[in-house]
Amino acid sequence: MAVRVLPDFLINQIAAGEVVERPASVVKELVENALDAGADQIMIDVTDGGRTLISIIDNGCGMGRDDLSRAITRHATSKLPDDDLLNINFMGFRGEALPSIASVSDMTIDTYNGVDENGWQIDATTGEIRPSDWESGTRIRVQNLFAKTPARLKFLRGDRAEMMSVLDVVKRLAMARSDVGFTLNNKWRFPKDEDLLSRIESVMGDDVVGRMLEIDAVSRTNSGMKLSGYISEPTLRRASSVDQFLFVNGRPVKDKVLVGALRAAYMDVMHAREFPLCALYLTVPTNAVDVNVSPAKTEVHFLEPTHVRSFIIKTLRDRLAQTMVPPRVPERPMVMQAPVSAPRFDFGIRPDSFRVCDNIAPVVTPVFESHAPVVRVREDLPIVEECAPVVDVAPDMPLGRVVGQVGNKYIVAQNGDDMIIVDQHAAHERITYEKLRNNKIKTQPLLTPIVVNMRVEDVVAISSIADEMKKSGLHIGEFGEDAIAIFEKPADWDMNWGTVLQSIADEVRANGHSSGLNEKLHLKLANYACHHSVRAGQKLDLIQMDALLRDIERTERAGQCNHGRPVYKIIPISEIDTWFERL
């Protein structure tokens, strides 16, 4: 069979198969070009989900006649001034978008550069250029998408589904550039020069207001690597990753390294089937990341992915671990004795978590049989002025003073005009888990190593993360070219190590990293913490309830238990007033 060079129209259609997957792909390419042209206002109009018309209007720098004629030729670009593929500082760069789109649609471009006497219009099908009365920026109209390739047209989904894909693309670009105004079909508007938090609320919805945690960190090992943005409180989550916005050097991406790091950071505060919200902006030196990986420009390759992943995990975990109040060292020891008849629990509480005054009788008397006990004031003792603060809430007591217990399940407290409800089991579970996690993992050296036979490529994959596995208590090494030897393992871990190592190897080969062993460790600690914590239905006295509140205030990740359930709710009195129509 003879070798022949394909005609240009067919080459462009093949390129379009990589670049132009659906209408949303067209919108992404054209809006990115508008951003590269310096536009700060972009209007997008889409008809019939993009099949009939896609119109992009921007107020960027526009083009002259010569640039316009070159713009629709293959591999033409203004994004590589020094021909260095590792120094790309623009949103677009491949130089295939416009000719590829033109090969599968009817496309016209109107543009004006502010210098020529008039604007210019080009018909991308014929290449004809004529004067235009266009006065500012550029307008691109893409009509009859895939009409020239009917086989592609039939694979499009319904108009509504395609429209939602377009909206998702616009949202991601709007999150990338909060300084630019975007309008889609005159229905979805993202105003220019919004601060990032306002843009996040506009894109993600009103339920994120006041529930996003700010991130701002610089790598200690790589001064050029920085992470900024916002992540959600663990109790704010979605059923899918729809509200996860990840950016590398300002470019929206869907990268396995970043997604894996995000999942690992939330591992012990959120259920595996739930997803946190985020808008994270990673900045790395341009020579440390390759953005010219895929035609869709949604994937990147990092020069040192392990360092990137570790930096992100540590930064997010440190932010999630911040306590409500800083831990304090007791000034003097104090021994508190709960009533003999009361259930005893060791919360690991510091003795100075609360005060005892002489005018408070050391007895606890139940008000009602089903209710928590309350402290009775002895009438035969004078009230000491110095003891007034016992009733007040100290500044370092954000969960307030205990009022009582409801259903032997929830602790009710008050702080000013706020009512606080605490799930006693979830609170103690978090306290127990954090103590276990902060202790060094107990390991068991093996007299006879466990040898697991594996394929050569799996041995290489496992060996690449040997140091990371050692931190989880598993000391391994290569045993020839086709086997892994386990020399030390976490104590009391009896499992099918062949299956465990194979699943880890599969994950490393697919994603470049693995969180499988850490997830198993988390599950083991979480189960232990759950089974050794105060149960729902157990009656606590005031001293125990107050001690539990003081300890959870100084515990990391205190807002949720190991399974992602909330530990406490703070209800302002203004919200309570609405329940009773006191408006």
Relevant terms:
583 residues; alpha+beta; Heat Shock Protein 90; Ribosomal Protein S5, domain 2; formyl-coa transferase, domain 3; eight-stranded mixed β-sheet; five-stranded mixed β-sheet; 16 helices; 26 strands; 30% helix
Q: Which radius of gyration do the C-alpha atoms yield?
A: 31 Å
The CATH superfamily of the largest domain appears as MutL, C-terminal domain, dimerisation subdomain
Beta-strand proportion: 15-25%
Tally of DSSP helical segments? 16
- Got a strand count? 26
Which geometry do the CA atoms define? globular
The CATH class of the largest domain, by name, is Alpha Beta
Report what the structure shows.
This protein is α+β, with helices and mostly antiparallel strands and 583 residues long. It folds into three domains: 8-188, Heat Shock Protein 90 (2-Layer Sandwich), CATH 3.30.565.10; 196-320, 2-Layer Sandwich (Ribosomal Protein S5, domain 2), CATH 3.30.230.10; 325-583, MutL, C-terminal domain, dimerisation subdomain (formyl-coa transferase, domain 3, 2-Layer Sandwich). The protein has 16 helices and 26 strands. The protein has an eight-stranded mixed sheet with strand order 5-4-3-6-2-1-7-8. β1 and β2 (53-58) form a beta hairpin. It is globular. The termini are far apart.
